[in-house]
Amino acid sequence: MMLTPGITRLLLALVLGLTAAAANVLGGALIARRRWSGRYLRYFIAVGAGFMLATALIEMIPESLKLALQHTSFFGIDTNAVFIYVLAGYFVVHFFEHTAAPHFHFGEETHQEEVRGAHASYTALLGLVIHTFFDGVAIASGLLVSTWLGGVIFLAIFLHKIPEGFTVASLMLASGQSRRAAFTSSAILGAATLLGVGLMFVVRGVVAEALPFSAGVTLYVAASDLIPEVNREPGAGMAVLVFLGVAVMLALKAIFRV
Q: Where does 4-78 have alpha helices with state H?
């Protein structure tokens, strides 16, 4: 029995969503069990920053403009509105990170004086849940446009998923929570990613709005979350890895001639 294109795309979304969610859980397991140095996670952060920036600017925003030219959605989106959605995505994540998680940064949390008590850790978790929910929305939005776009968005998101799980687990430990709570928090992030994927397939008619919104979220994560972490590191090595992330994106585009 042959699967319809719609079912095939849904199954692919499920596989990619589960893989991204598993990366969150893996990151949480690494910090909960103290088996991996945060130094290696910074390599993921640097490559991911470059890849995400390139994906947002070279793929997601141009595809959003194409959708705006081809379709008139319920909201009457046009090419000018695309950039309003991009800005909205950027500032929604900015708002939640700076209200729910004001001390959030990627990497292991070592400044325990800034993360005091359960309240601080759980508000930080809330901010990251919003963040990861839109990771899932971005993956599904891309897949609803094309397999190529969904694939590159997934790869861009996957590169920061392990550091994301690592971060939320370390925030929990720094606030005095148990290792079990630290691991569970990373699983919650994975579940939020899957929820974002699933919701987009339920309301797929808003993909023309969701894709540019997700592009804004991607830009924020790359430029405001990841690049500052790269800038913390001395020397040119981490900067080179950012350029490598961009180069990988461009190479994939050239190889597949998309």
A: 5-33, 38-54, 61-70
Question: Scanning the structure block, which residue is given the tokens 């994540």?
Answer: 93
pTM: 0.85
Kindly list the domain boundaries of the chain, sorted by start residue. 5-256
Q: Which residue do the tokens 């861009």 mark? A: 156
Structure tokens at 169: 């687990």
- Residue 52 buriedness (CB in 10 A; 0-12 / 13-18 / 19+): buried
pLDDT digits (tens, 9 = 90+) for 65-103: 998 887 654 455 577 889 999 999 999 988 887 776 555
Are 93 and 76 in contact by the 8 Å Cβ rule? The answer is no
What SS3 class is residue 97? helix
Q: Which amino acid is at 257?
A: R
Instruction: Indicate the angle between helix axes 79-99 and 117-145, nearest 10 degrees.
Output: 160
Q: Residue 103: phi, psi to the nearest 5? A: -105, 15
CA angle 70, 72, 76 (to 5 degrees): 140
Residue 32 is given by DSSP the state H
Q: How many other C-beta atoms are found inside a 10 Å radius of the C-beta of residue 31?
A: 26
Max distance between CA atoms of the chain, in angstroms, equals 59
Q: Which parts of 43-134 are beta strand (E)?
A: none
Give the CA angle between residues 231, 211, 54 to the nearest 5°: 35
The CA dihedral of 195, 198, 201, 205, to the nearest 10 degrees, is -20
DSSP secondary structure letter of residue 113: G
